[in-house]
Amino acid sequence: MKTDHPIYTLLSTGAEAFRVLTGGLRLVGPYRFRAVGFKALERRADGVFEPEGQPEPSYVVEFQAQRAPGAWYNLLTKVGLLGEQRPEADVRGVLIFLHERDDPGLPLGIAAADPPFAAVYLNRFLPELLAQEPDNPFVAVLAPLVIERDNELKALAPKLWQTIQAAPLPEPIRERLAEVLQFWLFERFKSLTAEEILAMITHLTPLEETRAYRDIFSRGEAKGKQEGKAEGKAEGKAETLLRQLRRRFGAVPEWAERRITKASTGQLDAWLDGIFDADGITGLIGPADPPEAPRT
What we know:
By secondary structure, the chain is α/β, with parallel strands linked by helices. The chain contains 14 helices and seven strands. The strands form two sheets. Strands 1-4-5-6-7 form a five-stranded mixed sheet. It has a two-stranded antiparallel ribbon with strand order 2-3. Helix 10 packs across helix 11 and helix 11 (228-249) packs parallel to helix 13 (265-274). The longest helix has 22 residues, at 228-249. It is globular.
């Protein structure tokens, strides 16, 4: 399962997403969130929370969706690189695992009594948190990561969606949470079409009245249902990419929008994975097409 893009989107919503994902760590005072790239080593952290105007720690957050022997060294490297940039800061690392079996164990020499690094296992606390905070949209959006049975997730999907839609949130935050939930449902149920995913999450409400219908399906409907699963998934990813490009770089040129809407799902995945490393639209998807030669 691809996690870089949705985890960044989720973390960018702020302190409550950080609390839920880290199993209860709280940010004290105002923090700003950003993606940090380490160009010398071509490394990028999933997210960094830095205090604004108060003597609190900075946190480097990494999300590990599968077992990787070097996961802790990856985090240590990024903590060290950020600490090198800001040697006066108290820099700490948080490594979030989907399951405790994916933790390869702390490297020798850093397993001190009070180490500056912490492991978080979503499977240990998130199911209980779902029961304790059923109306928390920041908890609901993570449910697809820990609900292992597909039938159980399908049955719960409408409630997860309604939790996000009914929560008293600023609209940009609601849109990001809805985007993350949609992304993980598409990744989880790869055999379903966009229409079937939407029917799953909105069966308690007439489809045409839902924000999901307007956001990720209404444009595809005009092209006809016969275009199938690939078209629906590509369109949803194209919309996500365009939204992220506008958020990061401003207006998207017409030539770039045309190229994105015609791209395959594989190409869209590659662009989504690279968006936070790109320095501009042309750096991500290439230069504009040359003008056509005049006909003679």
